[in-house]
Design a protein that fits this description.
Layout: H1 2-5, E1 8-9, E2 12-16, H2 23-35, H3 46-54, H4 58-62, E3 63-70, E4 73-83, E5 86-88, E6 101-102, E7 106-107, H5 110-117, E8 121-128, H6 132-135, E9 138-148, H7 153-162, H8 167-182, E10 185-191, H9 194-210, H10 220-231, E11 238-246, E12 249-258, E13 262-270, H11 279-290, E14 298-303, H12 307-312, E15 315-325, H13 329-345, H14 355-370
Parallel strand pairs: 1-7, 5-8, 13-14
Antiparallel strand pairs: 2-3, 3-4, 4-5, 4-6, 8-15, 9-14, 9-15, 10-11, 11-12, 12-13
Helix pairs in contact: 8-11, 13-14
């Protein structure tokens, strides 16, 4: 079998544009994702890379894939966006996972991949923390929050009660209150409602402005990305819109990416007049009831220290930030950035101690938008 041979050392690394992947390479990529559940995220799929390369953004010109081979057989794939002397994840800053699509025991030096790419530095953002090839290059670790519903909703609900959280009971109370005061509550899965899709992003942009965050959707290709994923209807990749109406009014919407058996929560927002009902959480609860019946084993909420994520999640997936650098000015500059962040965080300055880290992340988001 292909995957039984896909272990051991890499003999060759080819650098190709997404459209240059052969049918055999694409099949090997799908096989690896199917064989290893930790690689099942839609952000790690070939379809994500091909979609990013198809829209008029920085990945159309910059997306490259390091194809790791043993002989002529593809045994690993690392998609990146090459920008001058550095590389970053394809789809930055919208990509929630970065990783090497390969068997866990595949032996490769990350610096060898960087050299093959012809860059001085590879930036790691939301990199899979369990991957040994990059472990020594991690600088910051955090958790991504995952909801495992493979055993079905009743088993999940029992597990959450045993863990001491009443989040699901709260959602049920809020749902009843919403229906009592505003009319019938209706959940729609995999909706094709164009108006709801557009309303979600109107709410999201208003939320970003109100909280003084970067409006990622000011960049034209960002909206084109959402449109492209919404139009994708493959079994293994595409966008999935979920909506919640009360009395005929749209009160919450969530947009996710889906893989073969996983959903990744991507964008969620709600009508500002209905905040007291927590409609986004009610919607998520409805999704959790629907997902296992529809063949999905998990809903990934992604990174971010939010209380609701901790309450819903029963799995934590380690992710990391950092860089893989060759001797260069670009590598020295990145090392200095992380040094400043560590020094500031060690000072007793309260919230101000995280200012350099927040500034670095904001600059990284802006770099991702402009390529």
């Amino acid at each position: 079998m292909r995957l039984e041979r896909a272990t051991g050392a890499v003999t060759r690394i080819d650098i190709v544009a997404p459209q240059e992947l052969s049918s055999a390479d694409l099949a090997a990529w799908r096989d690896l994702q199917s064989a290893y559940p930790e690689l099942a995220s839609p952000f790690l799929s070939a379809q994500w890379v091909l979609t990013m390369a198809s829209i008029d953004g920085p990945d159309r010109r910059g997306a490259r894939i390091a194809v790791l081979r043993r002989g002529d057989e593809a045994v690993g794939f690392l998609p990146v966006r090459v920008t001058r002397s550095t590389a970053m994840p394809v789809g930055s800053p919208f990509c929630d996972y970065q990783g090497l699509v390969a068997a866990p025991d595949l032996a490769v030096d990350a610096r060898r991949i960087v050299a093959a790419l012809g860059v001085s530095r590879l930036d790691l953002h939301n990199a899979l923390g369990a991957q040994t090839a990059f472990a020594r290059h991690h600088r910051v670790r955090e958790d991504s929050w995952v909801i495992d519903v493979a055993a079905g909703y009743p088993a999940f609900a029992a597990e959450r009660r045993a863990a001491g959280t009443d989040i699901l009971q709260d959602c049920a109370k809020k749902r009843r209150k919403l229906q009592r005061e505003h009319g019938e509550v209706v959940f729609a899965a995999r909706s094709v409602d164009r108006g709801a899709f557009e309303q979600l992003f109107d709410w999201k942009r208003a939320q970003l402005v109100a909280t003084h965050q970067t409006d990622l959707f000011q960049t034209p290709w960002a909206q084109e990305l959402m449109e492209a994923t919404f139009a994708a209807d493959g079994a293994d990749f595409g966008g999935a819109l979920f909506t919640l109406h009360a009395g005929g009014r749209l009160v919450a919407a969530q947009y996710a990416l889906h893989g073969r058996d996983v959903l990744h929560s991507w964008m969620i927002s709600h009508h500002p007049d209905f905040g007291r009902y927590s409609p986004g959480l009610v919607l998520l609860d409805e999704m959790l009831r629907w997902a296992p019946e529809a063949g999905y084993r998990e809903i990934d909420l992604g990174p971010g220290a939010y209380r609701f994520k901790e309450s819903f999640s029963n799995v934590r997936r380690s992710i990391a930030e950092g860089y893989v650098g060759l001797p260069s000015a670009a590598t020295l500059f990145r090392a200095a950035e992380y040094l400043v962040c560590r020094m500031a965080e060690a000072l007793p300055l309260g919230p101000m101690s995280t200012m350099p880290t927040r500034a670095m992340r904001r600059l990284d988001r802006m770099r991702g938008l402009v390529g």
